[in-house]
Specification:
Length: 210
């Protein structure tokens, strides 16, 4: 599958563009938002805390795997955003980890958002993808339940950035690799190596109560 996106220009970080769009869409009138808000408020606090712990383990496993890997990346930042339901309009997640590694001329980012149920995750996934302003989409088999490779167009219209977004169980994962000095082909090769390292570490059953 190949998809050309036709929005205006790419502004700022692709991280913000990609999945920040979903929240903006919800703020302008997501028909299901009030239903989700009511559902979220009914979730026992104990269950939310258990989901936090589950996400903490996934993030710790990813950090450990990248630390042991011989790619040369050094952790730059790791931030946990434990979400209160309904605070982030359009978000289905209870927690989100934002992790960044750096190496000479290269930046790697991995975002993991964990929900309580897989229900609605496909639509949320595509809302985020539709927020990417320019690039080409390619379906990737064998990664999670659903995976899309994005080759981004930068401000000078060169295609050097590569992202891989996938759903696995009730987790939504985004992996970004940027190196403007390398070809898309080389960036894509390293990106897929990292994705294949990380993907088995995402252990999130379809529903929290299963």
């Amino acid at each position: 599958m190949k998809r050309n996106l036709y929005f205006c220009t790419l502004i700022g970080s692709l991280v913000v563009c990609a999945f920040g769009f979903a929240a903006a869409a919800a703020q302008t009138g997501d028909a299901d938002y009030q239903k989700r808000l009511a559902r979220d408020k009914a979730v026992p606090r104990e269950k939310v805390e258990q989901a936090y712990a589950e996400a903490d383990k996934i993030a710790a496993d990813i950090l450990k795997a990248l630390e042991k890997d011989k790619s040369g990346f050094q952790i730059y930042r790791s931030t946990a955003e434990h979400l209160k339901f309904g605070v982030a309009p359009g978000s289905l997640g209870v927690t989100r980890y934002l992790m960044t590694w750096r190496r000479s001329n290269t930046e790697l980012q991995i975002h993991v958002e964990l929900t309580l149920s897989k229900t609605g995750l496909h639509d949320q996934f595509w809302k985020g993808l539709n927020g990417i302003q320019m690039g080409e989409f390619f379906k990737v088999e064998g990664i999670g339940d659903e995976a899309i490779l994005v080759k981004n167009v930068t401000a000078n219209l060169t295609m050097t950035n590569t992202d891989l977004h996938f759903i696995k169980g009730r987790a939504m994962v985004d992996v970004y690799l940027r190196n403007y000095r390398r070809s898309t082909k080389k960036n894509e090769k390293e990106l897929m190596e990292i994705v294949r390292l990380v993907e088995p570490l995402i252990a999130a059953r379809d529903n929290f109560d299963d």
